[in-house]
């Protein structure tokens, strides 16, 4: 680019900003990768918390589950209350996270967007699509953690 415009009439000098921009894009790449690692760590932490909570709940209800086993209840009917507890917790956590995401979007729209009109920020459609993914991932993580924990702890 510099060689294409250097020496033309009316152009004194051409500065190549590539070195500065390359550093900036590398920084953005590192920040993106760091955010991805934090997200993965958060999902693993959530799975461990769900697993531990269900283990404590199963331990506290061991007499009830023992009676259910004695009267011939199926393993699904024994596990169902614990699975529903995980689903309800997932929905509550999803609601809180969507609330924070919506508040963040509102802040961006009212405070930051007027100051930086040269760039486009995420839209409300992005918020709702992200919230659907949050709910789906929450259900998957909760279900997997619940099933693995309950099979191991309840021996059904």
TrEMBL record:
The keyword Signal does not apply. GO terms for biological process: cell division. The lineage of its organism: unclassified sequences, metagenomes, ecological metagenomes. It comes from freshwater metagenome. This is Unannotated protein. It is a multi-pass membrane protein. It is found in: Cell membrane. GO terms for cellular component: plasma membrane. Residues 37-151 form the ABC3 transporter permease C-terminal domain. Pfam families: FtsX. Keywords: Cell membrane, Membrane, Transmembrane, Transmembrane helix. The chain crosses the membrane at residues 35-59, 80-108, 128-150.
């Amino acid at each position: 680019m510099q060689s294409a415009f250097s020496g033309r009439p009316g152009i004194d000098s051409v500065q190549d900003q590539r070195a500065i921009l390359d550093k900036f894009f590398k920084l953005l790449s590192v920040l993106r990768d760091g955010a991805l690692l934090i997200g993965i760590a958060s999902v693993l932490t959530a799975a461990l918390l769900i697993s531990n909570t269900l283990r404590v709940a199963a331990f506290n209800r061991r007499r009830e589950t023992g009676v259910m086993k004695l009267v011939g209840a199926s393993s699904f009917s024994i596990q169902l209350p614990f699975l529903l507890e995980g689903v309800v917790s997932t929905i509550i956590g999803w609601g809180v996270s969507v609330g924070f995401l919506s508040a963040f979007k509102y802040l961006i729209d009212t405070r930051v967007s007027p100051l930086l009109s040269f760039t486009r920020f995420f839209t409300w459609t992005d918020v709702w699509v992200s919230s659907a993914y949050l709910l789906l991932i929450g259900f998957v993580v909760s279900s997997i953690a619940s099933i693995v924990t309950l099979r191991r702890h309840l021996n059904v």
